[in-house]
Each structure stands twice: as structure tokens, then as C-alpha cells.
Amino acid sequence: VDHQGEILEESGQKDGPFRILNTAAFLIHSAIHAARPDVLCAAHSHSTYGKAFSALGRTLDPINQDVCAFYNVGGFPANCFYLGYFTYSWFVKDHVLYKQYNGIVLDEVEGKAITEALGSKKAAILQNHGLLVATSSIEATVHFYITLERSCEVQLLVDAAGAANGIKTVFIDSADAAETAKVLGSQGTAWLKGNMQFMVLEQEEGVRYKHVTA
Ligand SMILES: [Zn+2]
């Protein structure tokens, strides 16, 4: 479809064309593409663990290496500074929480509000709804979406186990999280990993997908 929601291509089904537009999906995706020229691919879904985690109304904690992909990817010392003998550092997240669930997205206002909340970041947890990832390549978006969904699964496990045993969760140090994010949160790494995931898919499905360079 184009930016106005006009269907440009048929589905490829041999039985006949399906010309049905998912309005809610279109309004979210079109608003992101209109506001973020850097975004080539946005992914939004109501995957189980993302949807479950979204009901808690919070962002992900830096509790393992992989989730650091959704922390600051800025250069050192992007999130720390030195004052005498002391180092101050803090977490800068590369994902946001969009809190206002207003029902199924059926008007432009909601799509724009989600886009505004996303800002320049790569991912959003849509409260009581699901997950959203937007990046500059299809491969990176697919990889980050899978990582985000699994990060929600792991956080739910950790929170439950910690609460059951009265244990406080251990966080990765913010400077270490930032250094990790430089690698795991980068478009290049995500493109590489996403590419491998597409290769597995090709092997399983017996089809070839076009590869787009990062
Ligand atoms: Zn949705």
C-alpha cells in the first residue's frame, strides 16, 4: 500500500486478489514511515510474551546481555561522566513505553501518538497491546523483534522467580550495558543476525528471499 492506504499490489494468490487493508496496522505503520525516513521496516505484533509484559506498564530492565540491545547505543561516554575520583553513569534506554491504550487503532491520531512516543528509538512496548520495532532494514527489525519478545519472556521469568524467593534482581552496570549495546544494539549486528534467521527460514521453507544490504 502507499502512504494514503491505496493498495498497490495484489497478494499474489492464484485464486484471486485479496484487496483488504488492515486499517489498524496501516495507521501505525504509515505514521512511523511518514515521521521516520530512516525506517525501512516496522514490525508490530501481539506476540504472547510481549503482550503479557505490556500489561505491567513498564520498560525492560538491563538484566542480561541480550536485552542491552534496547539500551543506549551512543558512543562512550554517552551515559557516564567523571568527577574527580567518582564515575557517574545512568541507563539510557533505546526503547519506550507507550502508556495510552485507546482501543484498536482506527484513526490517525493514535498512530501519530505511538510514533511520537517512539521518537528516534528502535522499539516500543505498547501498554496492554503488544510490541513494536522500527529500524533501517528488514533483517534488523526481524532480529530486534524476536529479541524484544524473548526479552519480555525472560523478564517475566526473572520477576516471577525473584518475587517467589524474595530476591532482588541484579542489574548489569549501566556503563557495561552501554558498551554491550554498542555491539548488540547496532544495526549492523542486527542485520547480520537477522540475515542468518532468514537463511534458516529459506532452508526450512525451501524458498529464496531477496537479500537487502544494510
Ligand atoms: Zn496491534
Offer a few descriptive terms:
214 residues; two-stranded antiparallel ribbon; globular; 6 strands; alpha+beta; binds zinc ion
State the end-to-end distance.
Answer: 23 Å
Largest sheet composition: 4 strands, mixed
Mean pLDDT across residues: 87
| Helical stretch tally | 6
Sequence stretches where pLDDT stays below 50 over 5 or more residues: none
Taking strands numbered 1, 2, ... along the chain, how are they ordered across the largest sheet?
A: 1-6-5-4
Helix percent reads 40-55%
Radius of gyration, in Å, reads: 19 Å
Morphology: globular
Q: What is the H/E order?
A: HEHEEEHEEHHH
- Structural class by sheet pairing and helices: alpha+beta
Q: What is the number of beta strands?
A: 6
Describe this structure in words.
This protein has 214 residues and is an alpha+beta fold. Helices cover 42% and strands 13% of the residues. The protein has helices at 23-35, 48-54, 108-118, 138-165, 174-184, 187-205, and strands at 41-45, 80-83, 86-89, 95-98, 123-126, 130-135. Strand 2 (80-83) and strand 3 (86-89) form a beta hairpin. Helix 1 (23-35) crosses helix 3, helix 2 (48-54) crosses helix 4 (138-165) and helix 4 (138-165) crosses helix 6. The mean pLDDT is 87. Residues 44, 46, 129-130 line the site of zinc ion. Zinc ion binds at residues 44, 46, 129-130.
